[in-house]
């Protein structure tokens, strides 16, 4: 390929320039430079919260991090004593987003003994179907994987953080 683009950017308040060779960035042959845009959100809390996330790569633990932080401020155990698992990105408005590798996450959650698994109930758009005709929503993939591995773990579709909280609040305590 060997096409090169020049990128101008600001880092530490200083203008920088870089030459980057275009590369294939996915299985469909899409060409790009491998940069992903993210929101630069700063969140301040009182009390301060420290999360050691060095063992976790990527944003797919956003929902579960959010639930854990929220549960720390609740009087009662939000999980009602059940092992809970799940996945999904989380945006500043509390929307749960699509992730990759949900099949493996369902299998790992089952092996770890989870009784409930929160799966992003994302919408598969026409554009996504055009790019990949076999694409399914994360929730549908999770349900199919749970069936394939013959687990009793319940797959719960969530579109928002509040969906997950509401589900947990309605659980009966584990006996």
From TrEMBL:
<feature type="active site">
    <location>
        <position position="105"/>
    </location>
</feature>
<keyword id="KW-0720">Serine protease</keyword>
<dbReference type="GO" id="GO:0004252">
    <property type="term" value="F:serine-type endopeptidase activity"/>
</dbReference>
<dbReference type="GO" id="GO:0030163">
    <property type="term" value="P:protein catabolic process"/>
</dbReference>
<dbReference type="InterPro" id="IPR014721">
    <property type="entry name" value="Ribsml_uS5_D2-typ_fold_subgr"/>
</dbReference>
<keyword id="KW-0378">Hydrolase</keyword>
<protein>
    <recommendedName>
        <fullName>endopeptidase La</fullName>
        <ecNumber>3.4.21.53</ecNumber>
    </recommendedName>
</protein>
<dbReference type="Pfam" id="PF05362">
    <property type="entry name" value="Lon_C"/>
</dbReference>
<feature type="domain" description="Lon proteolytic">
    <location>
        <begin position="1"/>
        <end position="171"/>
    </location>
</feature>
<keyword id="KW-0645">Protease</keyword>
<dbReference type="GO" id="GO:0006508">
    <property type="term" value="P:proteolysis"/>
</dbReference>
<dbReference type="GO" id="GO:0005524">
    <property type="term" value="F:ATP binding"/>
</dbReference>
<comment type="similarity">
    <text>Belongs to the peptidase S16 family.</text>
</comment>
<feature type="active site">
    <location>
        <position position="60"/>
    </location>
</feature>
<dbReference type="InterPro" id="IPR027065">
    <property type="entry name" value="Lon_Prtase"/>
</dbReference>
<dbReference type="InterPro" id="IPR008269">
    <property type="entry name" value="Lon_proteolytic"/>
</dbReference>
<dbReference type="InterPro" id="IPR020568">
    <property type="entry name" value="Ribosomal_Su5_D2-typ_SF"/>
</dbReference>
<dbReference type="GO" id="GO:0004176">
    <property type="term" value="F:ATP-dependent peptidase activity"/>
</dbReference>
């Amino acid at each position: 390929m060997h096409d090169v683009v020049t990128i101008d950017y600001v880092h530490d308040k200083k203008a920088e320039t870089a030459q980057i060779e275009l590369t294939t960035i996915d299985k469909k042959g899409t060409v790009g430079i491998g940069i992903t845009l993210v929101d630069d959100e700063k969140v301040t809390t009182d009390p301060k919260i420290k999360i050691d996330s060095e063992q976790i790569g990527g944003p797919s633990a956003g929902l579960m991090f959010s639930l854990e932080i929220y549960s720390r401020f609740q009087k009662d155990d939000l999980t009602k004593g059940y092992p809970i698992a799940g996945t999904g990105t989380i945006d500043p408005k509390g929307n749960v987003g699509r992730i990759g590798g949900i099949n493996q996450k369902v299998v790992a959650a089952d092996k770890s003994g989870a009784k409930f698994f929160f799966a992003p109930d994302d919408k598969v758009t026409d554009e996504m179907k055009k790019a990949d005709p076999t694409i399914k929503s994360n929730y549908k993939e999770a349900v199919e994987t749970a069936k394939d591995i013959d687990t009793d773990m319940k797959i719960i579709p969530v579109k928002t953080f509040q969906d997950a909280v509401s589900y947990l609040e309605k659980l009966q305590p584990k006996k």
